[in-house]
Amino acid sequence: MKFPKLLRAAALGVLAATSFLTAQEKGQWRAASTTAKGITGDVVFTDIKIILNFNAFTVAQIRSLTPAEATALFHADANAEGSGSIYRTEIPAEKRFLHKNTLCGSEETQWVVTYVNGRNLQMALFSGGSIPTLTPDALANATNLCGTYSYVR
Questions:
Q1: How many C-beta atoms lie closer than 10 Å to residue 147's C-beta?
Q2: What is the four-CA torsion angle of 137, 140, 146, 149, rounded to 10 degrees?
Q3: Kind of pairing between the strands at 43-45 and 145-152
Q4: How many CB atoms lie within 10 A of CB 87?
Q5: Domain locations in the chain?
Q6: Model's pTM, two decimal places?
Q7: Beta-carbon contacts of residue 77 (< 8 Å; ≥ 6 apart)
Q8: What is the chain's Cα-based Rg?
Q9: Cα dihedral sign for 30, 35, 39, 43?
Q10: Nearest to residue 111, comparing CAs of 147, 139, 77?
């Protein structure tokens, strides 16, 4: 079956844009915030893994972060050139990181939310089976937000 040139060009454009958005997190990031330096250390993103303190965990991108969600969670400028993603993962509650810290206390870490703006990465970790609600009201009362971290390149 042959696709019309316009349809094929549009499909390639969507694929390229999707690859660009998810590729922003890829690579190694140095811990910048006090929480990142004290708990996760440096972080590395690959196509299917997140590596925290030399421990690799599988991640699956669920969807892109909206500008409104980035603003609510990370206080990002809604007009900034940043992008982010929501990932699903399974990091056991008993897993220890730097200084014998856990990520979500006695709960399994199930969600990784990222936001990249230039050479800065912000990351938030969540517990719970449901995808986090990233609105100002929901975040003000969130019991599933485990922590936020900052990294640089």
A1: 18
A2: 90
A3: unpaired
A4: 23
A5: 5-152
A6: 0.84
A7: 71
A8: 16
A9: negative
A10: 147
Tell me the per-residue pLDDT of 1-43, one tens digit each, with 9 for 90 and over: 454 554 444 444 444 434 444 458 999 999 999 999 999 999 9
Q: What's the confidence (pLDDT) of residue 57?
A: 98
End-to-end CA distance of the chain: 45
56-101: per-residue pLDDT in tens? Answer: 999 999 999 999 999 999 999 878 889 999 999 999 999 999 999 9
Q: How far is CA 92 from CA 40, 58, 102, 108, in A?
A: 14, 12, 9, 5
Q: Which residues are CB-neighbours of 106 under 8 A, at least 6 positions away? A: 93
d(CA 117, CA 102): 27
Residue 130 pLDDT exceeds 70: yes
Q: What are 96-107's pLDDT values in tens digits?
A: 999 999 999 999
